[in-house]
Amino acid sequence: MTDTIIVLDYGSQYAQLIARRVRELQVYCELFHWNTPPEEILALNPKGYILSGGPASVYEEGAPTLPAYVLDSGLPVLGICYGMQLLTHDLGGKVAPGGEREYGHAKVNVNVDNPLMPQGDYEVWMSHGDRVEGLPPGFELLGSSANSPWAVMGNAERRIYGIQFHPEVHHTPQGMTILENFVDAICGAERDWTPKHIIEKSVADIRAQVGDARVLAAVSGGVDSSVAAALVHRAIGGQLCALFVDNGLLRQGELESVQVALNEHMDGSLNVLDASQDFLSALSGVTEPEAKRRAIGETFIRKFESFARQQENIDFLMQGTIYPDVIESRAPERSAAQVIKSHHNVGGLPKDMHFALVEPLRYLFKDEVRRIGAALGLPDELIWRQPFPGPGLAVRCLGEVTAERLATLRAADAIFTSELRAAELLEQPGGSDTGIAQAFVALLPVKSVGVMGDQRTYQETAVLRAVSSQDFMTADWVRLPYELLARVSSRIVNEVKGVNRVVYDLTSKPPATIEWE
Ligand SMILES: Nc1ncnc2c1ncn2[C@@H]1O[C@H](COP(=O)(O)OP(=O)(O)OP(=O)(O)O)[C@@H](O)[C@H]1O
Ligand SMILES: O=c1[nH]c(=O)c2[nH+]cn([C@@H]3O[C@H](COP(=O)(O)O)[C@@H](O)[C@H]3O)c2[nH]1
Ligand SMILES: NC(=O)CC[C@H](N)C(=O)O
Ligand SMILES: [Mg+2]
């Protein structure tokens, strides 16, 4: 059984990042809502617990608590921010509102020998209003910062540690070393979470789940479903039946290019279903973003079901769902964070679905998926393809989705994309901190007045969006050259009917998201 570290989520926006960092250390890690039934967690046979940060204050009525099994287990525990305050509160120390919030860079000095943080000065990232003001019995003060006299604490005998700062964010340069010390030196977890191991484990799991039934693989041409299908293919070969649905929400030329690419690595066994009319009808009159996502999720499943009915022995549906889809849709077993968007393949699924799901990537992050794709021998162009959301252009066409507005959006998007490609700014295998991770156009139902050829115009607005990102959980807008923006803007206004104004989106994530809906 794989050694596992459990992160209990107290509502921090960073909780997922903690799990990712531990996985980067090649130790398997899963994230759970702090109030998950203990059986579910104990079944994973954990080697240690990490308690995340969170917005609540431990001394308030109704604040999330520390489940008894955590300390009863006798296993190592690391409390981060709220997690540290929770340990303090529970074990008899004192937590109180600090004089002022401490948000941003700080320096922590550690002056006592301990296995978590060797003595010295650390640049760290803080984000808290409460602070520890008295240690629980049995704990030792290990380090302090100017605003947090009790910034690092530990009980060596019980292997329980607390840190007020966030080791999981980039702004804490030695954060990875601190997490490594925890999972390695303190928990003694085996570091065997490698692509090879992941592949072997998923292949075995898929075989055990499916037996000799057939699996309908929903493939989009994106990285996730391609890697998932390759895994399922490795597990059950010819029992796999791949289906690509043309939902009418694709970009220009996408149907053709996906067909070519998928046929190439699926030995020509790809099925294509034209369902564009069904999606358009399902979206007719719908403008609210979550309602669009639900309508699309349901239509996808109904199409998969009607396709499967014409085949024999298909009881399973494979989707390329990955961990961020699950967490962001707030699949109830996982996250304490707020729902930002329901991904069509998780939160958008209808309740009465006739399939059992096969989702070999459900607990993997995007970078892990890419590494597995590489280990399975998928081509680079596929592995580094820009993500394209399943709900497609519907979530980039704000307001009502109609065939006409989709055509406008498609034409504008094709101009932006082709200019970026011509400038060699688009495909950057390997990813980078500042290059384009995703670029597209969104169409706003906002009309403004313009003048073209001495005629008054009153038309909609196109937004250009280009972001850099490693993991799509955070992103920054790309500083594109003015000349390129000028060319794209003039081409869109001149060549695309229905648009008389072009704007560039200058918002990072957070506080915005990458997509507009
Ligand atoms: N047009 C489609 N036809 C069939 N299945 C689809 C289609 N679009 C999406 N799906 C299913 O929904 C899942 C989620 O879509 P999503 O866009 O998150 O993943 P992806 O397309 O595989 O990868 P990427 O995130 O790189 O675009 C896909 O993995 C696939 O199983
Ligand atoms: O398959 C998907 N189904 C969805 O419902 C969905 N919503 C957003 N995305 C993609 O996820 C990444 C983060 O997007 P946001 O910053 O807009 O939340 C970006 O890469 C988005 O393109 C989706 N992918
Ligand atoms: N980021 C956090 O975990 C914050 C913890 C607590 N709510 C505070 O403000 O101190
Ligand atoms: Mg996709």
TrEMBL record:
Q: Where does ATP bind?
A: 220-226
State whether keyword ATP-binding applies.
Answer: yes
The record places the active site at 81, 166, 168
Q: What is its EC number?
A: 6.3.5.2
Q: Which GO terms describe its cellular component?
A: cytosol
What keywords are annotated for this sequence in UniProt? ATP-binding, Glutamine amidotransferase, GMP biosynthesis, Ligase, Nucleotide-binding, Purine biosynthesis
Reaction equations catalysed: XMP + L-glutamine + ATP + H2O = GMP + L-glutamate + AMP + diphosphate + 2 H(+)
Write down a Pfam family by its short name. GMP_synt_C
Return one GO MF term. GMP synthase activity
Q: Which pathway does the UniProt entry assign to this protein?
A: Purine metabolism; GMP biosynthesis; GMP from XMP (L-Gln route): step 1/1
Q: Which residues form the GMPS ATP-PPase domain?
A: 193-385
Taxonomic superkingdom: Bacteria
Q: Which HAMAP family match?
A: GMP_synthase
The entry's function note states: Catalyzes the synthesis of GMP from XMP.
Q: Which NCBIfam families match?
A: guaA_Cterm, guaA_Nterm, PRK00074.1
Q: Which PANTHER family match?
A: GMP SYNTHASE [GLUTAMINE-HYDROLYZING] (PTHR11922:SF2), GMP SYNTHASE-RELATED (PTHR11922)
Q: Please give the subunit comment from the record.
A: Homodimer.
Please report the name of this protein according to its UniProt entry: GMP synthase [glutamine-hydrolyzing]
Native species = Pelolinea submarina
